[in-house]
Structure formats: C-alpha cells, structure tokens
Design brief:
Blueprint (H helix, E strand, L loop, with lengths): L1 H53 L2 E3 L10 E3 L2 E3 L1 H5 L3 H6 L3 E5 L5 E4 L12 E8 L10 E11 L2 E11 L1 H73 L6 H32 L7 E4 H11 L1 H7 L2 E8 L2 E6 L12 E4 L1 H17 L6 E10 L12 H9 L2 E10 L34 H11 L3 E7 L3 E9 L6
Parallel strand pairs: 10-13
Antiparallel strand pairs: 1-3, 2-3, 4-5, 4-8, 6-7, 7-8, 9-12, 10-11, 13-14, 14-16, 15-16
Helix pairs in contact: 1-4, 4-5, 5-10, 6-8, 8-10
Length: 479
C-alpha cells in the first residue's frame, strides 16, 4: 500500500514537472524560431535598402527600340551597372537577388534557374516553396519583395531571397538540445520525486505500523480475559441451583463473550497478516476433502433451516456429483494443490457460513469445485521431446476454482464495491437472521486468497442470490 502511494506521488511529481518543462521548452522553441525569422527578415530588408541605394537610374529622352533596361517614364534602371558589383557580395551571405520589370518580367537573377514563383510585394517577409528541379536544400526560401518607385513611376521589383536552412539548421540543433535537456530533467525529477515521496510517506508508515502493532498486541492480550470469562460463565451455567432468569442472563453473557472472542480472533489474524508476522505454511492438500469437512461442520444448521446443500466436483470436463453426505475418493487426486490448510478452512468456512446465514429456509446452496485448464504451448521448431511431453502432462491444469452459489436475499448493487472493506456491513434490515458478524469475514477471505496468489470475485442480485468465485493456483509460490 505504501509503495503504491509512494509510486503515485513520484509519478505525480514527475508528470507535473514534465508538463511544465514541456511548456517551457515549447515556448522557448517558438521564441527562438521567431527571433531567427525576424533576424533574417531584418537582413533581407537591409539588403533591399542597400541594393536600392546602389541602383543606377538614368534619364531617357528617346527610348531605344530594343533595350534590356526597364523604362519608367523618363527614367530607366541600368541593370548591368546596378547589379554588377552586388552579385559577389550577396553570394557570401547566401542571399539571392532578382530584378523584375514593371510588368513582372525577370530581367536579372543570381539563381542558376528562374523561379516559378509569382511576385508578391511584401516587406514583412514570406516563406515560399520553390520548384523541385532545383537543389533540394533550397526547396524553401524566405523572401522579401519591394516595389521600386520614383514618385508614382514604377521602375521595377526587387526580390531578395534567403535559404530556409539558415533557420532549420539551428532550430534542429535547438530541438535536440531541448529534448536531451528535458529528458535529463524529467529523469532527475523522477529520482528526486521518488526520494521526496519516501520522506513524505515515512511518518505515515511509522504511524500505521504502530497502529497495526497496537491492534495485534491488544487482540492478543484480550484473548485470555475473554477465554476466562467464557470458562467461568460455562462453569456457572453448570450449577444446578440456578433460577431460569439467572440461567438466561448467563447464556446471554456467554453468547456475547463468544462473539467478542471471534471478533478478537479476526482482528488478530488481520493484524498479523498486515504486519507479515505469520507466513502461510504451504503443504500439498486435497481441496475436495477440505470442502467436505467444511460442509460437515454446517450440517446441523443446514438441517435445521431445511436448506439443500450440494457439492459438485468437475474433473476434466466430467461431472462427479456428491452431496454433503457422500465422500467420493479419486485415485489420481485431481484436486490437490499447495496451500495452508488452516487458512483455507477459515476461508471456505466464512464463505459457506455466509451463504447459509443469508439463505432462507427451503433455499439451495450449490458448491462447485472444478479444474482450470492451462493454455497449451507447443514446443518451438516442431520438435516434441519426451521431457516436454512429461512436463505437459504434469502441468495440464494450472488452478482450481470453487464457486459457491446460493438462492439467498442477495446484496444491493451499491454495496458490492465495499464488501471486502473491513467492518463494512450491509444494511442490517436486510439480514435474514442475526449473524452477530463483525464485518471482517470477507476481508479475511480476501487476505487468505491473496496469500495464495489467487482471485476472489462476488456477484449478486436482490432476492435471487449471490455467487462467490474463488480461483486458487496449484502452486502459489510459482514453483
């Protein structure tokens, strides 16, 4: 329980820190990315300003018939003189220039091949994808396009491009660094969270251990006084001179003392179970014979209440039916498992007595013991060896299952999730007969099943009955 709580605390510490780190890393990533893009845009705009200042603009009196320059009213741009000195400079900075006529015709470019991209005058910068016939490293460009004007006369368009890898290269390195840093931080926080959760839960663990020890000590110390009271009451009841009223009072005291003794025994068992003081003593035992003994103990109550109690053995898909008065014996002992005899007797005594207690007169209780087959696994490579066949026959079944089904008053659906809680009792108004129980029977049953590495489940419907299923492995220790 404490390990699970400590594990949950450490997971919460780690999860919260991981989320905060993820948010920080994401924010830092977008901040750096946007900063890099802004720097590139500033660089492109600066190049635009420099190139525009270096443009050679000449007046034109009589436009020639064939001219490589762009005419704009009385002015034109001398393309060769304007861009002859700029090409080497921009190549050093991985920047490419393009000059377009006022009509959008490409007149000069540093690209080896013209880009099939429409003109979009934009000084704020845009990211564009170029055609696939170019170098794959230049598939994405960051561009700034400016319209060059004198007054209201458009001289042409200047487009400046920068390769996108200048952004992706540092961004990829940043992502790698952030990933490594975040993972390292999460691992460190997980280790620190595990350590801190252990410190936080240690006082609770100590308090719980002291409480369990107190319960065990108190239960142990109460057993002797209760036994002495019960002995003295029985001795007093043996006196021949008692009046009927005195005898009735002593019988009430004996009944309450007996109930208190059972409560103390249950508390002591659970306290020792929690503290791990008592370990189950696993021996090879016949579960069918154990169930017969349990049913034999309930015979008197069953006979008085006229309840039909049956025990069914299902061996290898063949039903061998027996009632509480019969004792079939099998030569192969198919229902033998490794378990603690005393604990299993207590387990099934609690379950059967509950079924008897809450089944009305004339009702029926069916107990079924069957084998759970093991999933067959074929040997690899198709080789069937003699040793494998021997082991396969020995491990034909992996568990035994006991199903106790009654036709009692049933349990409300809202009470089912709490039935295995300690001291939990269903509404007393639904009790068929006053059992005097303490609410610890099913908690003890669950503890015993867990000791044997088994499973216990309970299903019930109002006024139709309850079914308890207990599955016990043949070898609880895994051997």
């Amino acid at each position: 329980m404490f390990q699970a709580t400590r594990r949950r605390l450490a997971i919460w510490y780690t999860a919260v820190t991981a989320i905060l780190l993820l948010l920080f890393a994401s924010g830092f990533y977008f901040y750096v990315r946007n900063t890099l893009i802004e720097r590139i845009d500033d660089t492109l705009n600066h190049v635009v300003e420099v190139v525009e200042r270096s443009l050679v603009i000449e007046p034109v009196s009589t436009p020639p018939a064939m001219s490589p320059a762009v005419l704009a009213g009385q002015f034109q741009v001398n393309v060769e003189a304007s861009f002859r000195n700029n090409s080497n400079t921009v190549e050093d900075d991985h920047i490419d220039l393009e000059w377009f006529s006022p009509t959008g015709e490409l007149l000069w470019s540093t690209f080896s091949q013209a880009l099939d991209i429409p003109l979009h005058p934009n000084r704020s910068g845009e990211t564009v994808h170029i055609s696939e016939q170019l170098n794959p490293s230049e598939m994405i460009l960051r561009q700034v396009t400016d319209r060059v004007e004198i007054g209201r006369q458009v001289l042409g368009y200047l487009r400046v491009s920068h390769p996108w890898f200048e952004v992706t290269k540092p961004i990829r390195q940043l992502i790698l660094d952030l990933t490594i840093g975040t993972i390292s931080m999460v691992i460190g926080v997980a280790a620190i969270g595990w350590f801190l959760s252990g410190l936080a839960i240690e006082p609770v663990r100590d308090s719980y251990q002291r409480l369990k020890q107190f319960t065990a000590d108190a239960s142990h110390e109460l057993r002797n006084p209760i036994a002495m009271i019960q002995t003295n009451v029985q001795a007093a009841l043996a006196e021949p001179n008692l009046s009927s009223s005195e005898q009735q009072q002593l019988q009430v005291i004996e009944r309450i003392t007996r109930r208190l003794g059972r409560l103390v025994d249950d508390l002591l068992f659970l306290a020792r179970q929690d503290s791990g003081i008592v370990k189950p003593q696993f021996v090879s035992l016949p579960l069918d014979g154990l169930l017969m003994e349990v049913i034999e103990e309930q015979k008197v109550i069953v006979t008085q209440q006229k309840i039909h109690l049956s025990l069914n053995f299902i061996e290898d898909s063949e039903d061998i039916i027996a009632n509480s008065n019969s004792h079939p014996i099998t030569e192969t002992e198919p229902f033998t498992l490794q378990g603690d005899w005393d604990q299993l007797v207590r387990l099934f005594t609690n379950l059967v007595s509950n079924a008897v207690q809450y089944t009305p007169a004339g009702g029926e209780i069916k107990i079924e013991l069957k084998q759970i087959p093991k999933i067959k696994r074929q040997p690899t490579l198709g080789k069937v060896t003699e040793s494998w066949e021997k082991n396969h026959s020995l491990l034909k079944f992996e568990a035994l299952q006991v199903i106790i089904k009654d036709t009692g008053i049933g349990i409300p659906p809202e009470a089912l999730p709490h039935l295995f809680d300690r001291f939990y009792r269903v509404d007393p108004s639904r009790t068929h007969r006053n059992s005097g129980g303490s609410g610890l029977g099913l908690a003890i049953a669950q503890a015993i099943v867990e000791n044997h590495h088994g499973q216990i489940s309970l299903e019930s419907q109002i006024n139709q009955g309850t079914t308890v299923t207990v599955t016990l492995p043949l070898h609880p220790s895994g051997l």
